[in-house]
Amino acid sequence: MDNNQIQKRSLPKIDDLYANIELASKFNDLNKLLNCAPKAEWVKENKFANNAKYLSIATVEYLLTSIFTKWRVEIKSCQVVANSVVVAVRLFVLDPITGEWDWQDGIGASPIQTKQGAAATDFTQVTTAAVQMAAPAAESYAFKDAAEKFGKIFGKDLNRKDEMNYAPMQEKKFEKVAIPDELKSVIESTEEQAKLTEIFNTNKEYHSNPEFMQLLNKRKEEIKKMQLNGSVVNG
After folding, report:
1. In this predicted model, what pLDDT tens digit does every residue of 89-131 receive, in sequence order?
2. Which of 12, 18, 164, 191 is most buried, judging by how many CB atoms fall within 10 Å of its CB?
């Protein structure tokens, strides 16, 4: 199979994530990390563009390597639009939780410089190496545009007046709720797999508590062993 071919997979249902609280916590931790604000020392200002804030290519590459370990960029298209070189890229990252490739698309443009005093669209007055400089610059902008879509830590909200803090929502979703002793006793005395499934489905408020999932999984294994021992004896 072509290494560049991406295998499609079904997204996990929320109940699947809750059923594996460790996996759910890892996704939660990754989302919180990606949506942290970048370190103040990483943020630069472009004095030629109304002091717009940005992260350098070196910083973005450092973050990609630190978080995802493996990543790569594919140029999807490169063309001249008006007086600019426009590049579209696809940034692939190796998901540290699933071990599968994920990606975001980005687009960037950089003007083709003309000689001083010449019109921007007068291509008879293009400066030496203008396209040579514009093309990689456009690719860099596209690369950073794609990276920003992974989260705030890559500079997503640096120039937005209004932004949303995802952390409270993430924390609330996985807030632990204490399990009553009565429910623990019911789980421990259950002798049917179907009953465990019913307990899981009817007590969603405890899905975020690792102890709840551990009790269910432990009892499920105990029931399996009892059923297996019963089959051996009957055989």
Report:
1. 999 999 988 889 999 999 999 999 888 888 877 778 888 888 8
2. 18
Percentage with pLDDT > 90 across the chain? 38
Using a cut of 0.70, tell me whether the model's pTM lies above it.
Answer: no
Q: What is the DSSP secondary-structure string of the chain?
A: --TTPPPP-PPPPHHHHHHSHHHHHHHHHHHHHHTSPPPGGGEEEETTTTTEEEE-HHHHHHHHHHHHS-EEEEEEEEEEETTEEEEEEEEEEE-TTT--EEEEEEEEEEEPPB-TTS-TT-GGGBPTTHHHHHHHHHHHHHHHHHHHTT-GGGTTTTT-SS----HHHHHHHT---PPPHHHHHHHHH---HHHHHHHHHH-GGGTT-HHHHHHHHHHHHHHHHHHHHHHHHH-
Given this structure, which CATH class describes domain 38-161? alpha beta
Average pLDDT, the chain: 82
